[in-house]
Design brief:
2 copies of one chain form a homodimer. By secondary structure, the first copy, chain A, is an alpha+beta fold. The first copy, chain A, has helices at residues 3-12, 19-30, 37-47, 53-65, 109-112; strands at residues 35-36, 69-74, 77-82, 91-95, 101-104, 120-131. Chain A is built from 5 helices and 6 strands. Chain A binds a DNA duplex (30 and 30 nucleotides) through helix 4. Chains A, B: Fe cation binds at residues 89, 124. Chains A, B: Zn(2+) binds at residues 95, 98, 132, 135.
Chain lengths: 136, 136
DNA sequence: TTGTAAATAGGAATGCTTACGATTTACGAA
DNA sequence: TTCGTAAATCGTAAGCATTCCTATTTACAA
């Protein structure tokens, strides 16, 4: 997923193209890490003073539903990042300081699946937290 | 960790012994899964009508700090369970319906640690979600 | 039995998120 | 290009989990 793919997906699904949606997608396309709704609001409010939180959250959910963004919960707050898992399943290391991520290609489910006979597995979460080389 | 160990730990650390603390610990000792603050409030309010949420949260945090309870975040809400990780590190399968858990002894960090040269790993989260045999 | 710090009650405040009526806007059709 | 309409946004209120605060009560040691 990149910026153009996301813009095309929006158009193909029949959603309207607005400056704010473009700027939201550009924001996430430029970031390589998890960001919160208020991170996004801080940036957009410079260009669109008084932008509604409704607009922020509505579009975050829309983009998430369209799989343009993926999300995770960190410290009780939802965080979003540009989706990078369209072509292959993987997990993330997430820097506790800057929010930037590093892909982890190994999926622990490959090792433990056999141990869950009788259980219906619906999803899983594997994330590693710490400090990236830059933030140490 | 069991109920008596928890009660002794409380006493040894100099905390006062109250009926509410006893009942909170008994609640978690009887449950074998993750429960929320309001789950707990629902139960305690029967015996102590009007019990303050302050009491609930203050004690949940106390017990968590004392490692009597462990916690995780599910669907935007903090969940707590009696700690079972004192003697050995492990992860959990968590039933999406009843909250009950099953231990996972395999830790994915054993496989991926070498791939993080230059990164300072501080913590990790691995949880599997689905339906337990009873809830299917 | 009493003194005191700890614990609790009751309720207000906070922070993130969602909801909603009124207004504006994107965009296809005329 | 203009117009009509559904979609998008605004401004603000409400919801929910959680935290905070002060007055009151309680556990427990002296």
């Amino acid at each position: 997923m990149n910026l153009n793919e996301a813009l095309n997906l929006l158009k193909n699904e029949g959603y309207k193209f607005t400056d704010k949606r473009k700027d939201i997608l550009e924001f996430f396309a430029e970031e390589d890490g998890y960001r919160t709704a208020s991170d996004l609001w801080e940036i957009l409010n410079k260009k669109y003073p008084g932008i509604s939180y409704d607009t922020i959250y509505r579009n975050l959910h829309l983009f998430h539903d369209l799989h343009i963004l993926e999300s995770t919960e960190l410290a009780g707050e939802k965080h979003f990042r540009f989706s990078c898992g369209h072509d292959h399943h993987h997990h993330h290391f997430i820097c506790n300081n800057c929010g930037k991520t590093k892909s982890i290609e190994t999926c622990p489910m490959d090792f433990i699946q056999p141990k869950f006979q009788g259980y219906m597995i619906e999803s899983h979460k594997f994330e590693v937290y710490g400090l990236c080389p830059v933030c140490q």
